[in-house]
């Protein structure tokens, strides 16, 4: 069986370093590994609209931002199909049919949907489209017969829901759909990188994100004002590592080779942490080190972004071509689904020629 990747992001803002360590970096590695037959990367605008009905312009503007972030991280249109969800109408058709395979109770139990409903204070006023987006996500994944879905941990309930839909479809109709597997980050800190203020989640409204498109100066400013250990007032004081954002970011970004280049007095992160815990190591020194580490990772991304920004029509062209390719694959799966569901009347010569009419039944 071929190995196929599908994943995507909602275009509600520029992508930040949490997206990067949580999924983007891994996707580029998978794309370049040569182990996958196809890679599909989707900008999930239709899903973003399910809770942004009043903000169509925001979604529209962020399509290009997300595409630029993708390309500058190294997703390569020669190796991966980059496309826009709303342009593949087959996904809506699949969603409609899958709706018959899922109960309201099952959707209500989906932990991600539950948490999001709470976060948005939707309660009784949940749009049906939002409530059912796990079904549409199952359509996204199965339309491409994806075997592997690289995502953050928060998306696991979506993959589980998809697997249930696949099993049900294949049992009721016939073995058309493929059960996908989620691929989550190996490094636990990468699953949920906190904001620069130490809050659990990076979010635009909290102003605590480092964006991939930030200038070198902005990145430095954000790092130098990062939340550390509020009890570590003087350099000589012993410090805490847990909940100390600077060390969490080092856990996510730093390699041993960074010490040779930027902080040769220490062999590795464990030594640095030990010194901080003992006392005698100041926040500024650790922050400067983190700044070197992150700039090294982000600079090539930022430079590639500047190049891609010079030709925006070409980015739209890449997305259009990708959407055309994606549509062909989705149409093929939809045809198989309709055949399995016996709603392919006009393709069925046997039915048309030999239809028997039953009287008196
Ligand atoms: N739900 C994902 C997010 O919020 C985006 C998404 C939509 C997705 N369809 C998908 C991810 C299919 C993986 C596979 O980021």
Give the overall shape, derived from the CA principal axes: elongated
Overall SS class: mainly alpha
- Reading off the top of the CATH hierarchy, the class of the largest domain is best stated as Alpha Beta
Percent range of helical residues: 40-55%
Describe the SSE topology.
Layout: E1 4-9, H1 17-33, E2 38-43, H2 45-49, H3 56-73, E3 81-84, H4 90-98, H5 104-109, H6 111-119, H7 128-131, H8 133-143, E4 148-150, H9 156-172, E5 181-183, H10 216-224, H11 245-253, H12 256-262, H13 269-278, H14 283-309, H15 312-340, H16 349-354
Parallel strand pairs: 1-2, 2-3, 4-5
Helix pairs in contact: 3-14, 4-8, 4-15, 8-9, 10-14, 11-14
Bound molecules: tryptophan.
Sum up the structure in keywords.
361 residues; mainly alpha; Rossmann fold; Tyrosyl-Transfer RNA Synthetase; two-stranded parallel ribbon; 5 strands
Task: Summarize the structure in words.
The structure is a single chain. Helices cover 53% and strands 6% of the residues. By secondary structure, the chain is mostly helical. The chain folds into two domains: 4-192 and 312-355, Rossmann fold (3-Layer(aba) Sandwich); 216-308, Orthogonal Bundle (Tyrosyl-Transfer RNA Synthetase), CATH 1.10.240. The strands form two sheets. The protein has a three-stranded parallel β-sheet. Helix 4 (90-98) runs parallel beside helix 15 (312-340), helix 8 packs across helix 9 (156-172) and helix 11 crosses helix 14. 36% of the residues are buried. The model has no long low-confidence stretch (mean pLDDT 94). Tryptophan (TRP) binds next to strand 1 and helix 8.
